Amino acid sequence: MIRGRCCRDMAVHSLVVALLMLLSVVQLRADNAPKEEEEDLGFFMPMAPEQKPEKLQRLVTIAKDIREKAQKQPEAVALAISAAACTLPPVPLERALRVIKDIPSAAQEHLPAAVDLLASIRELGTAAECLQHPNTPHGSPGPLSYIIAANLYECEAIMPFWILEVLRLALLLRNDPLLQQAYFHNVTTQTNFKSTASISIYESGSQDATVTWLRVAEALWTAAAIPNTVVINGVLTRQTLMDPFSGAFYKQHRIEYLASLRNAAMEPVYTSAPGTYDYVIFINDVFFCAPDMLRLAAFEGDIACGLDFEVWIGNKKGRVSGVTQRFLRRLMQSKTSSVETIVADDSVITWQTAVEHMSKVHVEEAARQAAADARVQAAKIKPRYEFYDTWVSRDIGGSPYGKTDPIARDYRTIDLLHRGLPIPAKCCWNGMVILNATHLARGLKFRSSLTVEGEYDISECSLFCEDYRRLGATNVVVDPSVRVSYLVWTKEFHGKLPGGVGAKVPWSLIQRSGALDELQSLWRDTKSCMKMTWVPLKKYAEEADLEKYRAVDLASVNYTDIFLEHLKHPSSTPSKPATCNLIMGPYGASYEGMAFDDLSLSAFGKNPITTITYSNTTELQSLQVEYGSKPGLSHGTPNATSTVTLSSDETIDHVIVYFSEKAVSGMLLTTSNGRNVSMGVIEPEHGSYAWATPCPGDADRAGKYRLISFAGTADKVVRSVTLVWTPKE
Ligand SMILES: *[C@@H]1O[C@H](CO)[C@@H](O)[C@H](O)[C@H]1NC(C)=O
Ligand SMILES: *[C@@H]1O[C@H](CO)[C@@H](O)[C@H](O)[C@H]1NC(C)=O
Ligand SMILES: *[C@@H]1O[C@H](CO)[C@@H](O)[C@H](O)[C@H]1NC(C)=O
Ligand SMILES: *[C@@H]1O[C@H](CO)[C@@H](O)[C@H](O)[C@H]1NC(C)=O
Ligand SMILES: *[C@@H]1O[C@H](CO)[C@@H](O)[C@H](O)[C@H]1NC(C)=O
Ligand SMILES: *[C@@H]1O[C@H](CO)[C@@H](O)[C@H](O)[C@H]1NC(C)=O
User: Fold this and answer.
1) Which of 63, 394, 505, 650 is the most buried (most CB within 10 A)?
2) What SS3 class is residue 170?
3) Structural domain boundaries enclosing 702
């Protein structure tokens, strides 16, 4: 009967959807008409100071100091960090100081260092303005255990804010009494249950300061007694595979790669006993506010999300949205902003300097925000927020969300959406999501589509929703008052937004509005509805092609079952790719210098590397390689060069590349004869290194590949290198 209702509605509904889609197409075209544009896309954003290497270095040092102290006095230091977290914006500093004034003296001893650390982190980034929400849920709704998971990649601009917001979230989830008191004013009742929160981060391949930020984060979270697993420089990279016969390159399936990253972050969940975690919280590299997640947790749904937004200025936004947003993020870091660090000498952090430091952070943040708001006021064209994730989101009828009013098209939820009330849905992710982890005990993981078995190609998050639905986890909710963004926002973000999204509604009002009962009833009515709409991605753009949709019945073929069966019999699915990534790199500053590529000289490995000539000065100033008897061009500036000659059957089997954000510092080559050749500066003081051999970390495959050629970029020095490998015969 229930099913009947859902599916009868579908027939009429499809027509409405088709019409709405047509309308949105027309509207999109209209939007593309040329408009007057602001010169500078970043004009509305609060500017953040530059993340100078020496400042980052100091941060790593003081974060590690505090972690060391925590080893000796774990409780006192953790308490000091909770107290310090109270002093961050948006909590007024006076109120925070009132709340924390009576903490035990053992903790007070660590308070200056903790406050100074948090101020030092926060001042190096742009902060999104989180409004105070005295009426949101204050913590976990019950004695539950949470794990916050994330995949991070090249997002240094967002890290200062993100790290601290994750700290605040973890503390609030475990009902930290100090933070609750500071954030929500007069909290009178204290919970009589214990909940826990831990963190799992997986990062791989970042070449910016994300890696350094994660070292700071790891030390900070550990000192705060939040269990965490932070994998930095993980070995998963999106593989470029080479067909050894044709020499043609192809990229690993994007979704397969993204699913593997998510699974890597979920490793602690998969490897713990079922029931260890009640909820998994996935947070992208977005600006978000911690109390919003408490709101999502309060639904106690199977999947709960907010909405994610992109910023447009007029019609300016690149074709590939991710790239533009990243470009804009780079703008957030103004080179001119001069923020001096108050404490010059680490040894003199006193309570007074620490509070002054934090106070300066509050003042500057407010000033930056006010200046940005003023620029927006004065601007002819205002920033416009547009709902982003149309590819994954599905309304309660299974139709994709659109970009225009109403973004969630099912008529049963349009009114709720316009009023800013929570709406049931079939799928959402939207930059930040909380998942009931119970269902994972069935063995479910993130995956890519089983295209061989006939499943349509969709994202790993969409598949996750579909798998959850087939397993009976159908309580999905989107709260339009919870908003995240890839850039910081201005005041307008809290009000009505394009797409028919009502202004934010306080939680207390939601409770009184009857929306929660409505939600339960819609969940019940649609529980067995298995209709979904499939939408492909546009060619060459990571954007849903809403014109090419198709109806799918999730009940017709149980791909979830097929997937779970595959997992049980790993022999039937090759879980490891049969080939490794044969192109390693680029390492170094790949955007600088002229590109070179010796692959054709090497004739795809037919002409083996015979000699390498290089400058062994302060960095890798030059590199020249001879393939067979064909000398390649010299890249960089030859200066005091050395030459290595390989014997006739000697191959290069292993390479470590040392590099910085500016150039390649050196390389350590190991040959099949066990010879080590060190070029340039090995193990430099600053900078990263990478195991540039295929399948790093896979002992079975070590030594089974040989280096066939170099590519990279160079000007007066070698800026970046990429290494091309082939399996040994
Ligand atoms: C704080 O407590 C006072 C008195 O108990 C009450 O009148 C006031 O509304 C409370 N404020 C908030 C924000 O809850
Ligand atoms: C998660 O879902 C299961 C199955 O529907 C349910 O029994 C459980 O209460 C949910 N967990 C939480 C923490 O709400
Ligand atoms: C799909 O298969 C799973 C696992 O075998 C099963 O639990 C679930 O009920 C099935 N769902 C549907 C809709 O057939
Ligand atoms: C290159 O320089 C390093 C130190 O600067 C030195 O240890 C190494 O032996 C040099 N290599 C050659 C081949 O000269
Ligand atoms: C050659 O290397 C030396 C030592 O690092 C350096 O002082 C000199 O400036 C370099 N010469 C050129 C032309 O780059
Ligand atoms: C070559 O370098 C590696 C890594 O630093 C080291 O483990 C190995 O012992 C070295 N081999 C020789 C022959 O020096």
Assistant:
1) 394
2) helix
3) 583-727
List all residues 6 or more positions away from 344 whose beta carbon is below 8 Å from its beta carbon: none
Asked if residue 247 belongs to a domain, the reply is no
For residue 230, give the H/E element and its range: strand 228-231
Q: Can you tell me which atom of ligand 2 is nearest the CA of 144?
A: 13
CB neighbours of 474 closer than 8 A, spacing ≥ 6? 302, 468, 523, 526, 527
Domain co-membership, 507 together with 623 = no
Instruction: Verify whether ligand 4 is closer than 6 Å to residue 678 (CB atom).
Output: yes
Q: Are residues 533 and 386 in the same domain?
A: yes
Q: Specify whether 398 is located in the same domain as 541.
A: yes
406: cis peptide before it, omega within 30°?
yes
- Please state the pTM of the whole predicted model: 0.72
Q: Express each pLDDT in 119-165 by its tens digit.
A: 999 999 889 889 887 888 999 999 999 999 999 988 888 999 999 99
166 domain-assigned: no
Q: Are residues 608 and 627 in the same domain?
A: yes
CA dist., res. 87 & res. 80, Å (int): 11
**pLDDT at site 573:** 41
Atom of ligand 5 nearest to the CA of 639: 1
- Chunked mean pLDDT (size 10), the chain, 729 residues: 35 38 37 42 70 89 96 97 97 94 94 96 91 87 97 90 97 95 83 93 88 95 97 77 49 80 95 95 95 97 95 60 48 49 61 94 90 85 87 94 91 95 97 96 92 87 96 97 89 92 94 95 96 83 78 94 86 51 85 87 90 86 93 91 92 91 90 92 77 77 87 92 88
Q: Does one domain contain both 560 and 587? A: no
Q: Does one domain contain both 559 and 589? A: no
Q: What is the 3-state secondary structure (H, E, C) of 451-508?
A: HHHCCCCCCHHHHHHHHHHHCCCCCEEEEEEEEEECCCCCHHHHCCECCCECCCCCHH
Pairing state between β 240-242 and 249-251: antiparallel
Q: How many A from CA of 676 to the centre of ligand 6?
A: 6
| Nearest Cα to Cα of residue 532 among 396, 390, 389 | 396
Q: Which ligand is nearest to the CA of 671?
A: 6
List pocket residues of ligand 1, CB cut-off 6 Å.
134, 185-186
Query: Is 554 a domain residue?
Result: yes
Domain count, the chain: 2
Q: Are 430 and 308 in contact (CB under 8 A)?
A: yes
Residue 548, CA distances (Å) to 24, 27, 68, 150, 427 in order: 14, 17, 57, 31, 19
* 248 Rama class: left (phi>0) / alpha (psi -120 to 50) / beta: beta
CATH number, domain containing residue 601: 2.100.10.30
Can you say whether the dihedral through the CA atoms of 100, 106, 111, 114 is positive or negative?
A: negative
Residue 24 has a pLDDT of: 39
Choice from 439, 469, 470, 562 to test ligand 3 binding pocket (greatest atom count within 8 A of CB): 470
Nearest-ligand number for the alpha carbon of 636: 5
At which of 574, 600, 629 does a domain end?
Answer: 574
- Boundary residue ending a domain (574, 609, 626): 574
Q: What pLDDT shows up at residue 49?
A: 73
**Is there a single domain that holds both residue 422 and residue 554?**
yes
Same domain, 501 and 593: no
